[in-house]
Amino acid sequence: MICTRDLALLAGLVLAAPGLTACDGPVEDPSGTGAAEPTQAAQQRADIAAMHGERALLAGDLALARAWLEPGEFSAETRAEGFRSLGRLEMAQGNLPAAGAAFDQSYRADPASAGLWVDIGRLRYAGGEQAQALEAVDRALAIDPAHAEALRFRGQLARDAQGLATGAEWFARALELHPQNRELRLDLAATLSDAGRAQDALAVLRGGDGTAAAAPRGLFVQAVIAARGGDVALARDLLERSGLAKDGVASAQLLSALIDLQQENYAIAAVTLDRLYSRQPDNRRIRDLLAFALSRSAGERELVRRFAGIVADDPASAYLRTLIGRAYEALGDRARAARFLDQPAIASGQLTALPSLSPVRIAPTSQATGALQLRDQVRHAIVAGDGEAAVTRAAELARRFPGSADAQAVLGDASFAVGDKPAARAAYGRAARIRLGWPLALRLARAQDDVPRAQRMLADYVRQNPMNGEAAAALADSYATQGDWPRAVGLLDHALDLGMGRVPWVLAARSVGARQLGDADEAMSYALAAHELEPMNPLAISALLAAMPDDGSAARAELEAKLRSLQSR
C-alpha cells in the first residue's frame, strides 16, 4: 500500500537515463584459473550478471545488486530480466527516471513480459500516474491472466478504488490459483482484518504452509487484531516481534503509539506521533492524536504553540479546538480558552482546505512549479475565497498529472468551492476510479444533486469499508434526515463502537434517535455526554434541550439563551 497518498514529483515513465558507469573492481574468473581473455571474461559476466544481480536484489544487498546490474551488460538471453531487475533496483532507491529507462530497455528485449508490465504499473503509480498504472496491470493480465504478481497488484488497486470487500475478493481469487504465494496470503489477511473479519484473517494467515503467520507482516496483522480486541499486551508483543516499528514502517509506528495511548504512556506516544506528523503533516488523524497525547502528558504549552494557529485556518476540527481550549484552561489563560471553547462547531464533513506551510502569495506558475506547490496554491486560493485562481491552478495541476487521483481530487475541491457541482462531480469521479478514500467519498456524495444517489454512494462505501466509523455516522445522518430512525440508530451504534464516541454531533444524533424510539433515559445520557465534550456545540445543546423536561428550570433557560446566542452569530 502506498503510505504517503500524495503527488509524486514525476509525471513521465521513461525519462533521460543518467550515464551508466563501469562496475567497480575486477570480475572474478568463473574458471578460477585467471587465464581468461578479456572478451571471454566479459561474455561470462554477461551470462551471469542478471542472475546474480537479481539474487542480490532479493536478498536486500542493493550495493552488490548495483555492481552486477548497473553496467547494463547482459547476454541476449538475459537482457530482458537484467534490465527489469535494474529497474526494480532503481525504484527501490527512489530513482524513478532511471527505473523507467531500465524498464524501457527490458521492454525492447521482451515486450510480452507480464512481470515487466506489473513493474511498469508500480512505477507509474509511484510517479503519480495511477490511471496509467491500472492500464499497465490490465495489460499484464491480458498477457498472463494467472500471473500472481499481476493479480496481487490488481487487487491492491481494486482495494484502493472499490474498497476492502472488492479488494479481498481479488486477493482470494488470486490465492486460489497460487495457494503457496505468501505475499498474496498476507495481503488477503490484512484486507480482511481491516474489514473487521478478524477470524477470517487469522484463518488465512494460518493456512498454506503456515509461514505467513510468522512473517513480519503476519505478526503485524495479528497485532492489529489483538489491539482491536482490547488485548494490548498481546498486541505489543506481536508488534515488537514483527520488527516493523523499529524499521520505520509508518503503520506499525502508529499502532505502537495507539498502544501507548491505551496504556497511558502519553509522553512516549507523543514522541512517536511527533515523528509521524513530521512525515505526514496533512494527516489530521495523526495530528489530533498527537494533540491528545500532548494534552495528557503535561504538554499544554507545546500543544497551544503548535496547533492554536492551525485551528484558525481549520475551523472544522472541533476536537482539536476543544483540546486547545482545555490546554489554555490548564495554563490559567481563561480568556484564550474561551475563544476556543465558545466557538460554535461547524457541521461534520464540511469541505475545508487543508492548511499549508507555503506562502499565501500565489506566484505565477511555470514548468518549474512543482506538484506540491500547485496543490498548496489551490488550497490557499480556496481559503482566501479566490475561486478563479483556485480553479486555474487546479486545472494546471490536473493537466500536468492527468493520471493522478490527487490532482483530480484537488480540481474537484476547487470546482466545488466555486459552486460548480457538475465539474466537481466529474473530477471527483475520475479520482474515485483510481482511489476512493473516505474524504473523497464524502465530497463525491456532497457534490451530488440527487439525494438518493448520494445516499447509495454512502451505503456502498460503508458496505465496502465496514470499519470506517465516520462513514457509518454519515450514512446514519442521511437516514435520520429521512426519518428512518431504526436504521440510523443501528449505524450510529456501530459508529460509536468504532471510536466515534468523542464526536459531539454523533452523540447528539444518538440522543435524538433514542428519543425518537421512546427511550428517554438513553436520550438524556447521550445528550449529556455530547454537551460535556463540547458545551458550545449547537447540536449538543439542542439534543440536551430536547431530552430535558419542559419545566421552566433555570438550567433549561440558560441552555435556551446560549443556543439563541449561537444561532444569532
* Count of alpha/pi helices: 30
User: CATH homologous superfamily of one domain - what is it?
Assistant: Tetratricopeptide repeat domain
How much helix is in the residues?
55-70%
Please write the CATH class name of one domain.
Answer: Mainly Alpha
Indicate the CATH topology of one domain.
Serine Threonine Protein Phosphatase 5, Tetratricopeptide repeat
Biggest sheet character: none
Shape: elongated
What would the average pLDDT be, to the nearest integer?
86
CATH architectural grouping of one domain: Alpha Horseshoe
Unreliable spans: 1-36, 345-368
Helices, strands, pairings?
Elements: H1 38-59, H2 62-69, H3 79-92, H4 96-109, H5 114-126, H6 130-143, H7 148-161, H8 164-177, H9 182-194, H10 198-206, H11 216-228, H12 232-242, H13 250-262, H14 266-279, H15 284-296, H16 300-313, H17 318-330, H18 334-341, H19 371-384, H20 387-400, H21 405-417, H22 421-432, H23 438-446, H24 451-464, H25 469-481, H26 485-497, H27 504-516, H28 520-533, H29 538-547, H30 554-567
Helix pairs in contact: 1-2, 1-3, 2-3, 3-4, 4-5, 5-6, 6-7, 7-8, 7-9, 8-9, 9-10, 9-11, 10-11, 11-12, 12-13, 13-14, 14-15, 15-16, 15-17, 16-17, 17-18, 19-20, 19-21, 20-21, 21-22, 22-23, 23-24, 24-25, 25-26, 26-27, 27-28, 27-29, 28-29, 29-30
